[in-house]
Structures are given as structure tokens and as C-alpha cells.
Design brief:
By secondary structure, the protein is an alpha+beta fold. The protein folds into three domains: 248 residues, Lambda Exonuclease, Chain A, CATH 3.90.320; 39 residues; 80 residues, no CATH class. It is 43% helix and 21% strand. Strands 3, 4, 5, 6, 7, 8 and 9 form a seven-stranded mixed sheet that branches. Strands 10-11-12 form a three-stranded antiparallel sheet. Strands 1-2 form a two-stranded antiparallel sheet. Helix 3 runs antiparallel to helix 4 and helix 6 packs across helix 8.
Amino acid sequence: MKKKNSADAAPAAGPNLFGEVPPPAPAKKDGLLAFSYSKMSLYEECPLKYKFKYIDKIKEEPKFYFAFGSAIHSALEFLYSVKNPPFPTIEEVCEAFRTEWNAKSYLEKGYRTQTKSDDDYQKGLLMLKAYYEHNRSRFAPPFLVEYATDVEVDGLLVRTISDRIEHLGGGEITIIDYKTGKDVKREPAQLYMYQKITELDPRLKEKIAETYGTRVASVKIRELLYYHVPTNKEYSFERAGDREIGGFWERALGVADGIRGQKFEPAPGDRQCGWCDYKSLCPVFFGGARPAPQPQLPVPGHIEVLVDRYGRLKEKMQEIQAELDRVAEEISRSAKSGGEYAGNAFTASVSKTAKWAFPNREAVLGVLNQFDLYKKALDVTVAGLGRLLDSPDLAPEARQKLLEQAVRKTAVDIRIIKKGE
């Protein structure tokens, strides 16, 4: 889960601590097809989803796990962005994480509530502190950090972005790839892509000469490493042989042929479709017609479609109501005895009144029966019982019995006025 997999976002062109960063790869260059491991894996997951994302350029909803992974990567990039010690302190690393995290709102990051975003922020701080403590004894200036490159091969312009590269001498390197998601067994396919492209990249030889003053005839992968940041576990893969790389590359070229041939059939399945943002465009679900900016109801009689839409809207209402309740509770606590409070866009008038609550309805009915109070209560509601308690004619013993079943609460009324209205 990382920013380099988010639509293959590339750094802006220009110099940085590690030399010149290439500009983003164009869609095509002299007939070359822009390619990457993330594009390949998405096409294999569902060719139609690839088309929606990369050909039609329809944006997906933001994903919180991408935002979390991106912020962790940004903090680790900051940590290793030194050519000579000292390294940044853990406080500085956490501040870099905080800055990246606060650059977007919780909704822009893909969270449904501020609370979940805040929880992940705290989780990220703990994760970085554990990483720092686990690795501080072996901190050393890296060869390259967040190294992006585009390599032309077999009619493709292939982009890779390596989190960290260490030079072991003589042109041999180790590539480290950070992972921030679940700790599951990793397939080496992505590492095959790193190996294939890295060993073909002519820029790496020049960078070794610039950094270490030594020219090498070739660059060769010795080790590829997945580093699982949440657990500080390392999963090491030795350099793959020609057979593994050859088989992987045939697979990649097959994907490229499918893209060139505009073979974009949907590939439905639980895994592919469960969280897909393009269902409303997919012929498997809704006939493939792109919805208008203001969605129209389906043709009358499509009750199944209406039921699903109604259910989704109800879910959204419940989520919004839960968030409203949480914010209202926080306003109530902060407002103390009430008053008027002005934000940047809205003004809130907060008033508080005391009210009764009667959690045990059966016990209340017993008291009303005992003292023959049904008529005086008028109705067995909170309002009716409240009026009864406030009545000066109520017998003291009956009042005491009712009070034993009553709970005094504070009712909060929040009236919002938009400024300028």
C-alpha cells in the first residue's frame, strides 16, 4: 500500500538529494506503451477496470490504506534523505509524518470518520517509533531513496519506483520495498519486475559512478527485500534466475498485447468486484451506462436495483447520523452551559435543558398502579411522567417511588445558521 501504486504517481521533474528525477512517463513515446507492475496487476485482475482507470481516466474513490501507506513512506523517505549522518531524530520523523497526514482531510484520505483517521494517525506514530528503535543501530546513508526510472524494453516504457536501494559494491545492489498492509506471504512477481528493469536501467551505472567514484560494467541484483513496517519483519528473495524472469516477462508481454488489442472484457468475481468503484459503469451490474451528474432512478419495475440503491443510501444516512451524533456530543461537552459559538462558515446556538428518563418501564408501571396515577400521568410517556413529577399535588411517597426509577439527563438543542444567510 503505497503512493507509488496510486495511479503510478511520479515525482515532479527536477533535482533532489539523489540526483535528477525523471519526469512522469507519457502515455506513449514513439509508439511505446507506458507500463508498470501496478498496471499489469490491475489488468490481470479485471481488464475493464484497467480501461476505466487508465484509458478513460475515471478517478476512483480515495482509499484510506493508500493514504496511510503514503504517509509512512513519506516519513521513511525523510528519515533516509541524508548523505551523511546525523540522521533525523524520531521526533523529526514523526513531525514529517504529521505534516504529510494533515495535508488532507479525513474524507480526502478516504476515511469515513475523523475518529478512524485519528486512530490510524496514532498507529502510524507507534509504527515509526518501533521502526526507528529497531533499525537505529544500522542506520547508514543509502545509495538511493524513492528512485523512479523509465526503461524502454520490448516496445514498452516501463516505470519502477524503488523505496530504497543499497549498493553492495561492484555494481551489486539490494532493493528494499516497504509494506504497510497485512502481514501476508508476498509473491515475488513485483520483485521480478524490479529485477528485470533495474538491471536494464543505464542510469544506475552512472549514479554509482557519481556517488562512489567507481565505474561498473553492469548492475546486478543480489537481494530483493520486502520490509513489513508494522511488524519489522523482513522477507528476503535472492536474485531470480533466467527461467523465472523469462516466464514472468512472457506474462507481462501477454498483458501488454491485451492492452494494445483493446481487450477490455470484464472479469467478475468476489475479489475483483467486492470493493470496485466502477460498478455503476460495468455491464455486469448496470448495463455499462455511465450515470449522469444527477443520478436518475432506474426504469420502473427494476425493483432489485431500487432495493440495492435504497440500502446503500440508508447505510450512508446511518454513517452520517453516527458522525452527527458524535460531533453533537463533543459540542455539548465543550459548550458547558450553552451559548453561541461562531465557526468560519457557521454559527451555532447551543441550549441545554434538564429532562427525565425512565429506563425501567415495568417498574414505572408498577408505581402508577400502586398509587392509581394513570389518570394524572395522562399517558405513560417521558413527557407525561415528567409533568406528573412536577405536579404539586403528587403524594410524597409516590414522588419518591417515581424518583427512584427516574434519571435526570440534559437535553441539548443545537441550531445552526450559515453565515451570510
